């Protein structure tokens, strides 16, 4: 698939087919993600792949947090939609920043650099999956359950995002985007 076609055809998928993705396909997608640009070549991304029972455990943890937040009349965002996508997806890839909690001189600019690099890796992952005929959903609702997820996995680095991946069971229409003219200033 041509790069432009992958960019134009990529959609956030919230419904997945009940079809297993072979480990080799996921490995290839993650390998491509590691080719993303990286500020100062820090490569501040770590990936944890969840499938089958571990993916179901993640959904259960998030469901428990949602239930508790609802009891407390707290916001749950779009968590329930994300949980459904996690349950249906063949895999969920958690994305971590291993540096932000351990480097003693970690500062705002390093955080910005690392976050941009991680975002580039995630975007590369999404486009690689699109190219392989897979659908993805970039999930930030995991933040509602970050402490619980990190405790479950005994991870002390910073959870940045999750990506649900699988064979799409929907064809969403393109979401509205502002034209480049509305977001660009020429000097």
Account of the 3D structure:
This protein is α+β, with helices and mostly antiparallel strands and 187 residues long. It has a single domain, classed as 3-Layer(aba) Sandwich (NADH Oxidase), CATH 3.40.109.10. The chain contains seven helices and four strands.
Number of domains: 1
Q: What distance lies between the first and last C-alpha atoms, to the nearest angstrom? A: 35 Å
Please state the structural category. alpha+beta
Element pattern in H and E:
HHEHHEHEHEH
Q: What proportion of the residues is helical, as a percent range?
A: 40-55%
Strand order of the largest sheet: 1-2-4-3
Gross morphology: globular
Report the C-alpha radius of gyration, rounded: 17 Å
For the record, what CATH class applies?
A: Alpha Beta
The DSSP helix count reads 7
* Mean pLDDT rating: 96
Task: Characterize the biggest β-sheet.
Answer: 4 strands, antiparallel
- Considering the protein shown, what is the CATH homologous superfamily? NADH Oxidase
Summary?
The chain is of the alpha+beta class.
Give the key terms.
187 residues; alpha+beta; NADH Oxidase; four-stranded antiparallel β-sheet
